[in-house]
TrEMBL record:
Record Gene3D superfamilies: 3.30.420.40
An example Gene Ontology biological process: xylulose catabolic process
Function, as annotated: Catalyzes the phosphorylation of D-xylulose to D-xylulose 5-phosphate.
HAMAP family per the UniProt record, alphabetical: XylB
Principal EC category: transferase
CDD domains hit by this protein: ASKHA_NBD_FGGY_BaXK-like
Annotated source species: Cryobacterium adonitolivorans
MF terms in GO: ATP binding; D-xylulokinase activity
Active site per UniProt: 240 (proton acceptor)
InterPro entries: ATPase_NBD (IPR043129), Carb_kinase_FGGY (IPR000577), Carb_kinase_FGGY_CS (IPR018483), FGGY_C (IPR018485), FGGY_Carb_Kinase (IPR050406), FGGY_N (IPR018484), Xylulokinase (IPR006000)
Gene behind the chain: xylB
Site (Important for activity): 8
Protein name: Xylulose kinase
Length: 471
């Protein structure tokens, strides 16, 4: 029985899952936390990865490993392989003006044609432009630009800062995959190549970029590390959303709605997308296809905020929400607590509309929180549909998807059948599937169980009210 490991290095933590390469059967897992904040020293991710590997019982009996990680994070390295400054994460919005400047210079339609997306504060290229403008001395030192999964895979293979790694700072050994490269803002998923002129517009000069590997490729092998034997195959890796799609085995007609720190709506398609409005990012998936995606900055933490305000936990928030009627008697929460990416409103704040003596109740506020969360994602579903995506089934995943009230109300907000897969670490599972692909030469077909099918009960009033107050 060959074993493989998948890694999910997310915003909040690092998870390692070990599975049987043939059947996908779960064997064991481990987890370690990441620091809070929108900029993080990548060394913290490395420490968490090694800790999560140890928590998973080590990888001595594992044949291959692959790393999926949060997209867009700006990891800038000098010529000695040292990290120049803490990485700006996807949810750091200080580069909003840089995004606007890039869009104005290139043009939204032209940018979408060249890179499959229009710059917003989340993307790597805007963070590089911010670095160029705000910290020019640091920008000048940049010899290579990597993403979180690129850098972690490089370190697993023994590369890193001079004097702190077995193989030293060979920047040309950096590798990535199409899915993660497609979220930078200087890579074309349609043509599978970097657009270096866009990179230079961001950073101000050219730099080493990770070599883009194909699905099922091998990045190299590990060196001996704590909990990691030498010689493990290192898979190509992926961005987190592409990892989740692979872990779920998403097929044509499936649209994934994920409710975690961020909210995402995405689907696997054969055709690249070019949305000049900027709503849909034309990412690549991890199988050689495409992954049109929208993302919201505000997702599960909406529920955290309102639950805290009401002095309840998430279960009680759900119970209160189900006491209220669909539409919450006109109470509408526009949940832009941390600004927003879709729509692109980085400086926005949350607003509560429709407050009357009758509507302003604990139950209505609880329902308005869940409806507001889901309506923002339903708007994203409409945008993905506008790119020609067929929607036959919505796969609802993420921590908040396990709340029965979220499931019930999702069936009232979305106009397509909703299925809730059994809870799992699907990003890490996607990494494990990649590892198995690298090991065997064939993409595995692991079964994914579905634990809930909420009865379809579409209520147009919910989205109509939300649309009336849309920014």
């Amino acid at each position: 029985m060959a074993l493989v490991a998948g890694v999910d290095s997310s915003t909040q933590s690092c998870k390692v899952v070990v599975r049987d390469a043939d059947t996908g059967a779960f064997v064991r897992s481990g987890k370690a936390g990441h620091p809070a904040g929108t900029e993080v020293d990548p060394a913290a991710w490395w420490d968490a990865l090694l800790a999560a590997i140890q928590a998973a019982g080590g990888l001595d009996d594992v044949a291959a490993v692959s790393v999926a990680a949060q997209q867009h994070g700006m990891v800038v390295l000098d010529e000695d392989g040292r990290v120049i400054r803490p990485a700006l994460l996807w949810n750091d919005t200080r580069s909003a003006q840089a995004a606007a400047d890039l869009t104005n210079e290139v043009g939204a339609a032209e940018y979408a044609r060249r890179a499959g997306l229009v710059p917003v504060a989340s993307f790597t290229v805007t963070k590089l432009r911010w670095l160029r403008d705000a910290e020019p001395a640091n920008a000048t030192r940049v010899a290579a630009v990597a993403l979180p999964h690129d850098w972690l895979s490089w370190r697993l293979r023994g590369y890193g800062p001079a004097g702190e790694s077995e193989l030293g700072p060979d920047l040309t050994a950096l590798t990535t995959d199409r899915s993660d490269a497609s979220g930078t803002g200087y890579f074309s998923a349609a043509h599978d190549e970097y657009d270096r002129e866009l990179l230079v517009r961001g950073l101000g000069h050219d730099a080493v970029l990770p070599r883009v590997l194909g699905p099922g490729d091998t990045a190299g092998t590990t060196v001996a590390l704590p909990g990691v034997p030498a010689g493990l195959i290192v898979g190509v890796g992926a961005g987190d959303n592409a990892g989740a799609a692979m872990g779920l085995g998403a097929a044509a007609g499936d649209v994934i709605v994920s409710i975690g720190t961020s909210g995402t709506v995405f689907a696997v398609t054969a055709v690249p997308s070019e949305d000049a409005s900027g709503a849909v990012a034309g990412f690549a998936d991890a199988s050689g296809l495409h992954l049109p995606l929208i993302a919201t900055l505000n997702a599960a933490r909406i529920l955290d905020s309102i639950a805290g305000l009401l002095g309840v936990d998430h279960n009680e928030l759900g119970r209160l929400a189900l006491e209220a009627e669909p539409g919450a008697q006109g109470l509408v929460l526009q949940p832009y607590f941390e600004g927003e990416r879709t729509p692109n409103l980085p400086d926005a704040t949350a607003s509560l509309f429709g407050m009357t003596l009758a509507s302003t109740t604990r139950s209505n506020l609880a329902r308005a929180a869940i409806e507001g969360l889901l309506c923002g994602l339903a708007d994203g579903l409409d945008a993905v549909r506008a790119q020609g995506v067929s929607v036959e089934r919505i796969l609802l995943i993420g921590g908040a998807a396990q709340n029965p009230a979220v499931q019930f109300i999702a069936a009232q907000v979305f106009d397509a059948p909703v299925a809730v897969p059994t809870p799992g670490e699907y990003v890490a599972d996607g990494g494990a599937a990649q590892a198995a692909w690298s090991l065997t030469g064939t993409r595995p077909a692991w079964a994914v169980a579905v634990e809930a099918h909420p009865t379809p009960d579409f209520r147009p009033v919910i989205r109509a009210q939300y649309a009336a107050h849309r920014a």
